[in-house]
Amino acid sequence: MPFSLTFAQVFMAVNSNPKSVDFSNTEIAFSHLQISDLKKAHLLFSTFKYPVLVKYGPKLAALCLNLGLPIKGLLKKTIFNHFCGGENILDCNKKINFLYQHQVHTILDYSVEGEETELVFDATCEEIIQTIHASAANPSAIPFAVFKVTGVGRFEILRKVNNNESLNASEQAEFDRLRTRVEKICRTGYDNNVRVLIDAEETWIQDTIDSLVLQMSALFNTQKPMIYNTVQMYRHDRLDFVKKCFSDFSFHLGFKIVRGAYMEKERLRAEEMHYGNPIQSKKENTDKDYNEAVSFCLQNLERCAVVIGTHNEKSCVLAMQHMQDMGIDSQNPKVYFSQLLGMSDNISFNLAKSGYLVAKYVPYGPIKAVLPYLGRRAEENSSVKGQTGRELALIEKELLRRKKGRIN
Ligand SMILES: Cc1cc2nc3c(=O)[nH]c(=O)nc-3n(C[C@H](O)[C@H](O)[C@H](O)COP(=O)(O)OP(=O)(O)OC[C@H]3O[C@@H](n4cnc5c(N)ncnc54)[C@H](O)[C@@H]3O)c2cc1C
Q1: Residue 82 contacts by C-beta under 8 Å, 6 or more apart in sequence?
Q2: In a domain? residue 52
Q3: Does residue 1 form part of some domain?
Q4: What is the CA(263)–ligand 1 centre distance, in A?
Q5: Ligand 1 contacts CB of residue 124 (under 6 A)
Q6: What would the pLDDT profile of 279-300 be if each residue is shown by its tens digit?
Q7: pLDDT digits (tens, 9 = 90+) for 243-277
Q8: Residues 226, 78 share a domain
Q9: Does 282 lie in the same domain as 385?
Q10: Is there an atom of ligand 1 within 6 Å of 283 CB?
Q11: Is the domain of 61 the same as that of 105?
């Protein structure tokens, strides 16, 4: 299939779902959940319809925890349990095994956002290395490790480097330590044969991240793709970036393709600072570039590997269609689909059941430290027309199906 998809091709692909993967099959999507879990999930997604709760809930929860009020148990049983694997790696084992029983793999995501101190960065680096060891000990269930560069170094130092601002001696030493942590993580992945994904962040630090990832790829991707960069297709320059990386470098390349999580922030900053908006002018352009980037990787699997990180059904269907057209085995380890824990189970579990490789991000960390992550999930799920509507409709469909069949 050519890179540029016509409307007819998109239409045909979406309406001839390959290998008959039915994303509306809620029986498969929720086979891992008891009726009581489904009712809890229904209540949770229903609360996301209230903007006040979404806006102030996480802040209020943080305040209560700071004041020592006993809300940890409630959080743990509700939003935390839905979107996170646990407070530490050991806690996550139950969910890892559970997912794996349904052929869904895990990517342990240490989702702590805290103080920007060298002590915290060192501790985070060590924790990420523990996720690599967990993966090395259980490679079929945990095929990747993941981290954010801002977890192991200060945002402002990344921004300065990005902006070509000169660093003083102490800042240079700080940036060197950041780079050393990134290399330590990637080297541990390489030594243990664990692939490492590096998340994408804001545009005003992303050039620095890209440069670090490319340096790591040059070191560790000589034989096969071990280090994966993330590309955000809501940026209008990223399809060219993917293609340029491929033509400029001779080592293997790993790409996690996502649409991008910081759209409003990007737009606001560009407006305030009077520079061109890096974001696509409309959603359709993001979708088009997303599908073309996936297609490009699939056409170049001899030197590319791809993680299709999305909750968008059409993009998944198109990717499956391309795989089928190009004769790519659904178990090819260079092609993974990926969703976040607690979201779009209809995609993850139906894809896995049909033989595709799927890995869920399983975030974990102390409850208080993962509250910002939970706040973002609540926000992302707060549009009634969008994700919440989709999740609620699927849960309701399954509840009804079980009621009719008197299934627990
Ligand atoms: C496994 C996984 C890993 C992820 N890793 C990262 C990461 O490292 N970095 C990161 O930034 N995000 C990451 N994300 C989040 C991701 O970028 C998206 O925000 C999220 O997945 C929603 O996009 P979608 O493809 O699932 O689906 P959709 O619901 O189809 O798309 C929504 C997305 O489209 C884009 N969009 C919406 N409206 C417009 C518009 N008007 N104009 C242009 N674009 C628009 C935005 O990116 C929005 O988030 C990850 C997501 C997953 C599932």
Answers
A1: 40, 41, 44, 342
A2: yes
A3: no
A4: 9
A5: no
A6: 999 999 999 999 999 999 999 9
A7: 999 999 999 999 999 999 999 999 999 999 999 99
A8: no
A9: no
A10: yes
A11: no
